[in-house]
Amino acid sequence: MIHPPGFRGAVFATAAEGDARVDAEARRRLSSSLGVSSEWAFVTQIHGSSSLEAKTPGRLGDADALYTTRRDLPIAVASADCVPVIIEGADVVAVLHAGWRGAVAGVVPFTLARLAKEGLTVERAAIGPSIGPCCYEVGEEVAASFETFTAVTDWGTTSVDIAGFVAQQLETVLDQRDVWRSEACTYTSTALHSYRKTRSQDRQVAVGWIPQD
């Protein structure tokens, strides 16, 4: 597990913890380890920009971001190359799933705007493991959407830095020091699932929660 420093209720699981979005036993084990409820809230991820508020556990609908103000209600998204994000505030936690389509569609700024509209203050954000620009080969039509966040893969083809793009969006409302970013690449790490590398249907989860005390 990856615990971003300074966060009260945030974790990025690895492959070793199992695919807790679909495996109830893996979810129970992970919940026990974290000291949280095993009743989580999820969304059906659609690579878009919509967000939902979680007031109860369960699968709540189609979206790529989920937030809650309820204590001890874990919320989660799953990824295996896309960028997982956890955002914390005094009275809120949010989790986001940003693939290249969702990032370009604005899942990050739209979620930040929704939280602000609800009067919820954002204090920090963590960007979990995702495929890095070292390995995320894309076509020119995708690269054109990322402007200054284009790069070159280790084998010399065009790539994009989606996590860097997401970080810049977060930094429109947060100081750079309050945005933590994992250095792990899902494609090169043996501890993480990568759809691009193996076409695996397994995912690792990003979980956020507001502790009881």
Strand order of the largest sheet: 3-5-8-7-9-12
How far apart lie the N and C ends?
A: 22 Å
Give the full name of the CATH homologous superfamily.
CNF1/YfiH-like putative cysteine hydrolases
Using only C-alpha atoms, the radius of gyration works out to 16 Å
Q: Which sequence of SSEs, written as H and E, runs from N to C?
A: EHEEEEEEEHHEHEEHEHE
- Class derived from helix and strand content: alpha/beta
| DSSP summary, beta strand count | 13
Mean pLDDT comes to 94
CATH architecture descriptor name: 4-Layer Sandwich
Number of domains: 1
| Largest sheet features | 6 strands, mixed
CATH class: Alpha Beta
Instruction: Tell me the β content.
Output: 25-35%
Low-confidence stretches: none
Name the helicity range.
10-25%
What is the molecular shape?
Answer: globular
Give the count of helical stretches: 6
SSE layout and pairing:
Layout: E1 10-12, H1 24-34, E2 41-44, E3 51-53, E4 58-62, E5 65-68, E6 75-79, E7 83-89, E8 92-98, H2 100-105, H3 107-117, E9 122-127, H4 140-143, E10 150-152, E11 158-160, H5 162-170, E12 179-181, H6 195-198, E13 204-208
Parallel strand pairs: 2-4, 3-5, 9-12
Antiparallel strand pairs: 1-13, 5-8, 6-13, 7-8, 7-9, 10-11
